[in-house]
Amino acid sequence: MINKKVNNVQEALQGIENGMTIMLGGFGLCGIPENSIAELVKKETSELTCISNNAGVDDFGLGLLLHKRQIKKMISSYVGENAEFERQMLSGELDVELTPQGTLAEKCRAAQAGIPAFFTPAGFGTEVAEGKETREFNGKMHVMEMAFKADFAIVKAWKGDEAGNLIFKGTARNFNSCMAGAGKITIAEVEELLPVGSLDPNEIHIPGILVQRIFKGEKFEKRIEQRTVRIRK
């Protein structure tokens, strides 16, 4: 079995260059590849097109890349928690492509499965459908959406083995599971990296065939985006 392990985040991100398109897993701040994002900031990689459910917050996640003006275009479904994102979008500094959340997920999954395009009813009759092929199925109009084409997909998992098999924990599975294998090269950063054979095959969410590089991350902050607590009586 091929060993996908690399020694550190620097080795994992080799080959990422200015102007590339990168998928980044996570939902809000849940399950984001923190080490990889921090390394992209450090490398000062710029002119990036980033595909992610959102753009993080002002001082964490993809918000760090936005503050350094390293992102040229964001393809997202929700961007409401980032004031810098809003400022750059309204000023014209940042190109933004807003996509319905289900469509965003399916465009990732289609790329993962090698499906070039699909039809969805979401967005028909709106700006989302402008310039796209439409077709009627069972009396309902649908919009044709193309699968994403990304140079790299970067995901974060709870556990992984050296063959690239991944297990996600709870809701951190989110967009990570459909982005793994959806880029030309998939990089996985994990909290625990184990020898091959250590994971129960019945618990594996993503098989190693979809992953090209895997490394053990460090010092995950795992910030809570919106803390909600019950009022004590």
UniProtKB/TrEMBL annotation:
Gene3D superfamilies: Glutaconate Coenzyme A-transferase. InterPro entries: 3-oxoacid_CoA-transf_A, CoA_trans_fam_I, CoA_transf_BS, NagB/RpiA_transferase-like. The keyword Thylakoid does not apply. One of its GO terms (molecular function) is CoA-transferase activity. It holds the Pfam family CoA_trans. Keywords: Transferase. Belongs to the 3-oxoacid CoA-transferase subunit A family. This is CoA transferase subunit A. It comes from Flavobacterium pygoscelis.
